[in-house]
Design brief:
Elements lengths: L1 H12 L5 H13 L7 H31 L4 H8 L4 H14 L7 H10 L4 H13 L2 H9 L5 H24 L23 H40 L2 H8 L6 H9 L6 H13 L4 H13 L2 H7 L5 H26 L1
């Protein structure tokens, strides 16, 4: 029984699940004539291993999520949220945000559609916060990374959901809907018009595969850049560098991580390799998660895009709220995970 539990624990941490990738990456690196004991060999092996792992995770998670996303017609969303209890609406909006990729063609037009439909502003903001903040792919990566585990993944998801729900409540509490910028942006969503169950399932699978494959192809350059940066960090930057600036001994590491993410433009998928390297280099989980949240939720490019829907005044409040929330989450996670 003990052996069985130990095996299950290893599977949950990804030790056995991706061990074959490490062996395969080392094999290919050796076939290239590179010495695995050198920095270059280590970097190349890491790049091969993580390329397969990250792209596989991205495709699988996008495929599963898109099965649900295909059913999210705006009319259904409006009927679910309109007239509901506020707290129920906040939670439902957060769930919707998690399964809806954050981009100018989806989240912002949907946000405007919610407002136009008379849905309370707080619910729309809960959706807008959770969409970039919580990534199912990032949660899975934390789950299978030995330096993090299921505790870190759970705290990451719950903290992101709490930040979104509380943010939505505060928007309603202080009546911040006056800062909305109204425009005529619209968004077309994918609908399945087949009525038969068999045809509908086929159509959904076809849509999910196309969506996942096309999305992976679209973001591949950014993911590869992240993988290259991560591989170089893994092979060439000594652990002492990360320990000095982002390690547990630096009481301001969480603040540094929060600020460091603001100028960087990247989505969850392209920053995942860097996140994994930070964890492997001994950077505390909370500090790493703060950088992940900062990059994906309050980067300058994201704010410029959001200005299409929100005034700069509420965006400043938005940034301050998220910044403080991220630091609190980071310090809390570091205290729990140490």
């Amino acid at each position: 029984m003990i052996a069985l539990l130990a095996t299950i624990n290893k599977l949950m941490r990804g030790d056995i699940m991706f061990e074959f990738l490490k062996i395969f990456a080392d094999f290919l690196t050796a076939k290239m004539g590179l010495d695995l004991s050198t920095r270059l060999g280590t970097s190349v092996s890491f790049f091969i291993e993580d390329s397969i792992k990250i792209f596989l995770l991205i495709y699988v998670m996008l495929f599963v999520v898109s099965l649900f996303r295909a059913q999210l017609a705006p009319e259904k969303i409006k009927s679910y949220l309109s007239g509901r209890n506020s707290w129920f609406g906040y939670i439902l909006a957060v769930i919707l945000g998690v399964v809806t990729p954050f981009c100018s063609c989806s989240s912002i037009p949907m946000f405007i559609a919610f407002v136009a439909a008379g849905i309370p502003f707080g619910m729309t903001m809960a959706f807008l916060i959770s969409s970039p903040l919580i990534s199912e792919v990032a949660a899975v990566l934390l789950l299978i990374t030995p330096q993090a585990g299921w505790q870190a993944a759970l705290v990451y998801v719950l903290a992101g959901a709490l930040i979104a729900v509380l943010g939505g409540y505060l928007c309603d509490k202080f009546k911040l809907e006056k800062y909305i910028i109204h425009n005529d942006n619209s968004c077309s969503c994918c609908h399945c018009h087949n009525h038969g169950i068999k045809e509908k399932v086929k159509s959904l699978i076809h849509y999910a595969n196309d969506y996942a494959f096309n999305t992976v192809k679209e973001i591949a350059p950014y993911v590869l850049i992240g993988l290259i940066v991560g591989a170089l960090m893994h092979g060439y930057i000594p652990q002492e560098f990360f320990v000095k600036f982002l390690g547990a001994e630096n009481p301001f590491a969480v603040v540094v991580a929060a600020f460091a993410g603001i100028p960087i433009y990247a989505n969850h998928n392209s920053v995942l390799p860097i996140v994994q390297v930070l964890l492997m280099k001994g950077v505390p989980v909370g500090t790493t998660v703060v950088m992940l949240m900062s990059i994906t939720a309050i980067s300058l490019p994201e704010l410029i895009m959001l200005h299409k829907a929100l005034s700069w005044k509420i965006l400043a409040m938005f940034v301050c709220y998220l910044f403080i929330s991220f630091m609190l989450v980071g310090y809390l996670m570091n205290a729990i995970m140490l």
